[in-house]
């Protein structure tokens, strides 16, 4: 089976390909000649995943899937949420985003948070949604060099390491994107 993954984020593509382990051939947006920025104007994580999947299906005619991910922090009323990638501005700088989160949590003891990934799959004219959640907390300082985004400050439940310190094989099993992707795989195996 061949599906377009509506992303040009090389980190996400690598993570998804690792989870899929060759069971599905993934094409990136670049592979299909899509070089424009797909609008992410929805006010929910689900909405952005749907927008991206629908854009590729309508404009290019491919069955595809798209994901959107947000970090939701209890003490910050669910922020950064749908704005996670551009929390500190449109430049989408991970260090700036992390610093804004840490500044917002200064002197706050409730550091509970979760990552949420929603995958929208457009397949054979129908749409399906899959959601993965990883619970954890935000630590005081960055740790680790693996991963991307907020991984250096997110410590998943049951672990002493951050996502940025854990091997990709463990992150894929316990992480939000891995959980949503596993639901996608399970679904595709019965279609």
From TrEMBL:
Active-site positions on this chain:
68
- Positions annotated to bind Mg(2+): 68
Instruction: List, alphabetically, the GO terms of the cellular component aspect.
Output: cytosol
Tell me the GO BP annotations in alphabetical order: nucleotide metabolic process; purine nucleoside triphosphate catabolic process
Q: What class of enzyme is it?
A: hydrolase
Residues engaged in binding substrate: 7-12, 69, 148-151, 171, 176-177
Family recorded in the similarity comment: Belongs to the HAM1 NTPase family.
Subunit-structure text: Homodimer.
User: Which NCBIfam families does UniProt cross-reference here?
Assistant: PRK14823.1, RdgB/HAM1 family non-canonical purine NTP pyrophosphatase
Protein name, UniProt field? dITP/XTP pyrophosphatase
Lineage summary: Bacteria, Pseudomonadati, Bacteroidota, Flavobacteriia, Flavobacteriales
